[in-house]
Batch of 2 targets.
Target 1
Amino acid sequence: MTREIVIKYHPDGNVEIEGHGFIGKECLSASKPFEVALGLDNITREMKPDER
Amino acid sequence: MSHVTRTESPVAIKDKAALVSAAQKLGAEVLFDEEARGWSSLRHRGEIVLRHPESRYDVALNRVEGVYELNADLFGGGVEKVYGTKEHPYGKLVALYGAEVARKVALLRGYRVEQTMDQRGIVTQRVVVG
């Protein structure tokens, strides 16, 4: 299965990052470099059932 | 009375190259150490100045503690039309800037990147990890 990260940048500055096709918490480590580079804070995380 | 509005960008703009690339994607000419045009004879200097044929006024960017602040005369709506939305005058620019920063990260890791922007100014980036 293809692993991909979908990042949505809203004009109000909000950023959404979603991981697809990852196993377990692999998606968190995959998205981390993007969060760091973008300087994101106040992050809310929601794990989806198929990625637990 | 000044017609210059200061906006603190929600995503901290620190990467000059990504900023230049984002502005160029919106069709802006990027000038360095230049006077930005405002209403009447109002001018404000910018380390970076964004000029666009569809906006009478320019956007000036100067760094404060390493983060670029955006300043422009927002009167008339020309700036928001090019760089953002009514609610967020620089929203498209900031969204594209974020996408440029993330694109660098993705390409350094050998990932494939696809990107679109809709009418509302939302940039969607699909990073294919493998």
Target 2
Amino acid sequence: MYFKNQLRGYRVVIPTLQALSRDICRKCIGLEGAKTKVIKGLKKLRIDLENSSLPQGEKEEVTTMINRLLEMAEGIDVTAETTCQKTAGNCKIGQACLALDAAWGLMKQITEP
Amino acid sequence: MSDVEAMDVRGACCLSTAGVSDRLESLSEGEILEVVLDETMYDALTELVREKNCEILETKKEDNAVRVRLQKKKRMLKVKPSAGYPTEEGSYLRGNDFSPVAVAVLLNAPRPLPNQPDTKDIKIPPEIENLVRVAVETGAALAGTLQTENIGIEKLISNVVGNPNIRYLVLCGAEVEGHKTGDALKALLKNGINDRRTIIGTKAPTAYLFNIPLEAIERFREQVTLIDLLGETNPEVISKAVWSCYQEKPVQFKDYTLFDPGAYPKPAISCRLSLMVEHPEEIEEWELDEVVKKIQGGGIVGEKKVVEKAMIMDEKFVEIGKRLAKISEELSYMAKIFMGEEAAVEAPRVEVTLPKEEALSKVEEMEILYFENQLRGYNAVFATFNALKSDMCGGGLNLPLAVNKAIKRLENLRQELGKSPMPAKKKGEIDSRINNFLKQAEELPTEPGPCQKTAGNCKIGPGCFANGALDILKLITEPKR
């Protein structure tokens, strides 16, 4: 259940970040940070999975899903040099950061198990 | 009192002829002398004591005589800071290098960004700037803002250990939301760090000190005493704290007994951040062992090359004879110069570039910005909806409800667009984008089904992805209408 829920979250978050990468967020340090967090989160999930007591068959299934999501996450288009788009004067949506707050707002919906 | 040299000058007409003046002159530092004299000569002795740079330790009355125990005043040791001090850049002012106090004013920037370890591009509120200025003008060696619980603290450490004269650290200002930097600094001084380079006992989320030598951290903890004014923003209180720290004789400030104890008795440490881990805020707890191992091995972290900079030890001791308070005028002047420089390097404001063929009014610009920001939000919302469609949410209750709400809001946005004074061409562009979202909505579920939680399928907790998707729009708060 834990892994399934986490994967559901990432399956939603990654396309959201992909959509943002087509906006000014592509050059943004916020999106870069969100992308890094997703990648790390998935890698951590893979480590946890390896150490879990799930049956081997299920482990393999979940690992495949994690790897697919990792591939997607790594493909999120972010420029080599990023800078905060608020600081650059391009992002004027207010205090929030779409990439970080949207992505983590969605992941925070998962509280169980 | 038997081991102490005593001079009995009772009956003497003058302290000089009795040899007291010469003896005080020849007294070596720390050596104690006891003088027994007539009560009538006491005032003359106190004058002589001051003249000969001595101090009275104890006075006892005996019949018509007075027994005075005195010693040569210890010379206050002051040292020259390390070469290149202060080694790290930041938002701070440099005051008198011989002052025993540094001031860290906590800074709450508009929002903590993941890869923004310093405050170079952040507008510092005037009240914070004022606290920094007041601290330096009162006599602090360094005063500046502190925002992050990792690189911010590392920079502070690096600069403080470069100047052994700094013996107090005044921490003030409102706690930094999210970072808990004040808590981290207090915990560092109280508990230190563990073997994973994490500050022990702090609530700060990423209180990792990866980029500074352990020796510098330990020195920092030994060298300075914290004056905890966390939450204090009154310039008068900060000023009083700074003043108290450089007094020659102990004074009481709140719960602290403060005075200038002289320089820390070991050479300055000159170090710069290695920046082996440029973004400690991105490090997850489970990665710590690996990161620390790589730091120790001088490896690479996150594809960032290690730039270990050699520590330079510097030992140059000098004495100063003037009291710190006397140069406050100069400090004030210096502060003004530095403040001027700060203002000069402020990041230039970049305005949104708009098509040149149409000169837009401010109102039109704001109108365009409003609609573009809203559409930016829908861009993320619809990406989330589309992802949720293939999840169990597709057949559930809340995704269709959220989609229907989004449709209503988009239609409302289109109505607002109709009334907007923006140029027709831009209006057409925005209308087209709204239509595009409405078309996407046609492909999404709009007929509510059973709640997947009630059906026992969704077990993520009380949260809901579909509602979370719609909440993305709440992140767009400007421009207000």
